[in-house]
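Hi again,

Forgot to attach this to my earlier email, sorry! This is the prediction with PRP bound. I've pasted everything inline since the attachment limit keeps bouncing my files.
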Amino acid sequence: MRITTPKNDIERVLFTGEQISERVRELGAALAEEYRDRQPLMVCILKGASVFYADLCRAMDCALFMDFIAVSSYGASSKSTGVVRIIKDLDSNITGRHVVIVEDIIDSGLTLRYLEELFASRKPASMKTVCLLDKPRHGGGSGADAVGFDIPDEFVVGYGLDYAGHYRNLPYIGVLKKEVYE
Ligand code: PRP
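Structure tokens for the complex follow:
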């Protein structure tokens, strides 16, 4: 691992802060319209989705509730371990409520599948998934009901996404140089 500065470590910017803001505003407006009278429970999948979640919720001009669940599937590596661990569960009872799961990225799709099954077993009134970034690897269909951007199968960081805890605070999304993690 050779982490120096973002300027050195990022190969190229995929989406600027402005591009992200514009897309998040669109997603937020569509959700606000859809959930106007349903008071959705917005569920943030910590930690990666935190930045997207904060912006998305503020782009929704409607009543909503917030809750957080922390899961981990990657540890400190750049590859998925294939195991999803719940580190902090929701505080809310979601039975009978309109749940919107907010995720930052679908890679293998394992995390989302696991959470959708877990939440479905708690019998919400409805459930929808919004994901900022979608990789092609998990076989065509997105797995999320709404997607911000489709991205290539590369290691991306910034706007909440990390490598070994680094780069979450970058205001843009960029591709990490291979030499940083290889
Ligand atoms: C990352 C990301 C997604 C998941 C996607 O989380 O935030 O939750 O991996 O990968 P998958 O589709 O292959 O399951 P991570 O476990 O790294 O935790 P973090 O959000 O705290 O960074």
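The chain has a mean pLDDT of 91. The longest helix spans residues 17-34.

That should be everything now.

G.
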